[in-house]
Design goal:
By secondary structure, this protein is an all-beta fold. The protein is about 0% helix and about 55% strand. It has no helices and 30 strands.
Length: about 325
Amino acid sequence: MVGLRALSVEAPLTGGGFAGRAFVVADGEGAVHVCGLDGAVSQRKLHEGAILAMTTDEKTGAIFTAGDDGRALRTLAGGEPEVLHDGSKWVDTIACSPRGAVAWSAGKTIHLRQRGAEQAVPVAAPSSVSDLTFSADGRFLGAAVYGGALIVPLADPSEAYLLGWQGSHLTVGFSPDGRFCVTAMLENALHVWRIDKPEDKHGRMGGYPAKPLSFCWTADGRYLATAGAEVLVMWPFTGPDGPIGQKAGVYPAEQSLQARTVASRPNSRQIAVGYVDGSVALFDRKTSAFLPIAEPHEAGAVNGLCFSADGRWLGFTRERGVAGLAELGKG
C-alpha cells in the first residue's frame, strides 16, 4: 500500500533530495521546504533570489544550495548556513560526493572543495557548466559543458580533461562501476564514452522525440533507464563496451505519456517514472508492469524524482509548486 503526502508551495520548484529524516525541496524564491518523514513541515529562507540547484547528503543531513545571488551554501538542520562561495556571478550548479567532497560552478569556473579542505580549488571549464556530478567511487567529478564532458580527477584536479563531442551537453553521469560517462545533449540524444578508451569507444544514443535530460542506472548497474520518450527506454551496460553498438529496450505503459524524469530504487528492480502531466509510476523490471503512485496534477510536469537510501520513500517535485512524498515500504 502506498501512502502519499503533498506539499504546495507558491513558487516554482527547482530541486529535491533527502537529508537526514526529511525530504527537502528548493524553490525559485530562495527558500527550502523540509518535509519530515514524521509529517512535520518547515520552511527556511536561504537565498535572496532563486535557488538554481540543490543537492543533499542524506547521511549527514546537509543541504547544499546554489543561487542567483552568487552564493553557494551548506546548511544543517538548526544551524547557520555555511557560505561556501559568495561572488558576483550566478552559482549555476552544485554537487556533493558521498565521500565528503563538494563542487559548484559560477561562469566558466568549477570550484572543488575536497573533504577536510578549508578552501576550494578552482578548475577552468571550456564553457559555462550545465551540470555537475561525482562518480560513485569518488575518483572523478564530471561537468557537462559545451563540446562534451569535462572529467576532473580528484587525485589531481589540475589534470582535468575533456571527453569531446560537438554540441551542448546538459546533464552528466557515471556508471556505478565508474567505467562509463554519459551526457544528455541539447539535441534529442545521449552520448556515452568508455572512460579508459574515450577516443575509440564512444557513441551516440539517439532516437528520442524529446530531450532525455533525466537518466539513471538500475540498482544492479546493468541498464541505463532514460526519459525523453513516450515509453521507458533502457540501454544495456552488460558488455565490455556498454551500449555502444547495442539497441535499447523499450517498455510502454498503458497510456502514451512523455516521461520527463526517472530514478532507480535502491536495492530493487524498480524504477520511478515522472511524466509531463504530473503523474508518477513505478516500473517493475521483473514484471514490466507500471504501478501508479501519483495522479496527474495541474502543477505540471514532474521535474525531479529521488529515493531515500533505504528505498522506502520516494520524493518528487512538479514544476509549478507541488511536491509529493510517497511511503512505499519495504521493496
